[in-house]
Amino acid sequence: MTTSEGYLLLALPLIPLGSAILLMLIPSGERNAIKGVTGLASLAMFIISVYVFFAFDYRGDQFQGVIDWPWLQNAGFLGKDGIQLKVGLDGIAAPMVLLTGIVILSGTWVSWKIENRLKDFFVLLFVLVAGVYGTFVALDLFFWFLLYETAVLPMYLLIAVWGSGRREYGAMKLMMMLVAASILIFVAIFGIFTEAGLGTFDMPALFDAEYGRNFQLVMFPLVAIGCGTLAGIFPFHPWSPDGHAAAPTAVSMLHAGVLMKLGAFGIIRLGFQMLPEGAEFWAPALLTLGIIGALYGAVGALRQTDFKLMTGFSSVSHMGYVFVGLGTLNLIGMSGAVLQMFAHGVMTALFFLLIGALYDQSHDREFNHYSGMARRMPIWAIFFVIAGLASFGLPGLSGFIAELHIFIGAFRAYPLVGALAVLTAAITATYLLRMFAQTFFGEPSPRWSSVGEISWTERAGATVLAISIFALGLWPSPWIDRVAAGLEAGIPEVLL
């Protein structure tokens, strides 16, 4: 990936941000113009995301497409290159950029049916996406945190205004926990800046700085809890199922599909890459919380009868796998963690797209109220089965590749944890098969005679996500090559 292609990385956050500004100038009643702007913007983000993913040369430099513009330097406590707008891509961020492009494209299509304040919804949604892209490509720690918060803050209004059920409660609970967690990240960032003593927020320079062991032992838990709260780490996960249940469809897709990965990405960037001795010391605790969260989420999902709550607890469970993979401190386990971030992202986005498509017609999310839906909505049922099979790791689908790496890494490091991870997968299969049997089979209920097949835009979005599930499952080498190269170059040798 060349330096000139770095401008595409800069375009990724600027396109949604510029689109949000343009939408503000369009009258709210011009729905076709709003759909046109958002459709073109989401397609552009998707195309660029796919391009930069495949343009990244996993045999080349760690960070590629690096460009920067100085902002503040040699002023006060800042030295040379103090704060700069700097972007670049590595093998860890590349699949996350691709994931964001896939989810926002399908999320935009399914959101066009919103009747209430469509323009305002997309303004906030695109600001959120700008923050997500910026966090994945930023190489300046000051801008990284600014963009991280930009990705989180719109969630409150998106859920409180356009959500359903206990939307005010879900939005407030989410916001209070995530803002509290951000305080820990803020403290860790300025602790790192001060301890490094370089007078710069340049992330590659901070990666190479020397930090005292005691400092790392104190700072790593702040990063792990601060970023891990967004990633749904146990026991700081309670906001997640309620937030998922209350959010509108596209927000649920981005929330579970991308934003939770933003938290795990932060642990890798700020924790494992900057504080390796702290990561080495706390890795067993991270792994323990991960396997507890995986089991807890699976058992919690087993108890649910609400589609969204079941998927919300399932997300906590699958993100638990990510922490298990990171905690193994071996290349195959950590590669599995990053692969799981992508695999879970596309799978859970497909789940929430389909749940939203059904709820918009029936206004009922209790799956034990349904029967025979495979006859009434066969295309919807097929897509749902694809997502479900990916969720419990059927070979040939995305979940299998990711979970296999994690299980092997866990068995190599902690055989008992590996066994518990396999048990979690068995529980996952149990609650999904129970839901399939209840919802899809039997005689169609006359109560839902008015419910029809999903719309063409929903089918298009589901197709994009389903293709992504099969792509990773059947052709995993582009993902594995980039992730392994990113980890080998970016994670200090003491951890691998």
What does this protein look like?
It is globular, with a radius of gyration of 21 Å. The protein has one domain. It has helices at 6-25, 31-55, 93-111, 118-137, 141-152, 155-162, 167-196, 203-208, 213-230, 239-246, 249-272, 276-302, 307-327, 331-362, 373-376, 378-391, 398-413, 415-440, 456-474, 477-490, and strands spanning 64-72, 83-89. It has 496 residues and is mainly α. The chain has a two-stranded antiparallel ribbon. Helix 4 (118-137) runs antiparallel to helix 5 (141-152) and helix 10 (239-246) packs antiparallel against helix 11. The protein contains 20 helices and 2 strands.
Distance between the termini: 26 Å
- Into which percent range does the helicity of residues fall? over 70%
Apparent shape: globular
**Strand fraction:** under 5%
Q: What's the mean pLDDT score? A: 90
Topology as a string of helices (H) and strands (E): HHEEHHHHHHHHHHHHHHHHHH
The largest sheet has its strands arranged as 1-2
Gyration radius, rounded: 21 Å
Tally of separate helices: 20
What's the domain count? 1
The biggest beta sheet, please?
Answer: 2 strands, antiparallel
Poorly predicted regions are none
Structural class, please? Answer: mainly alpha
* Count of beta strands: 2
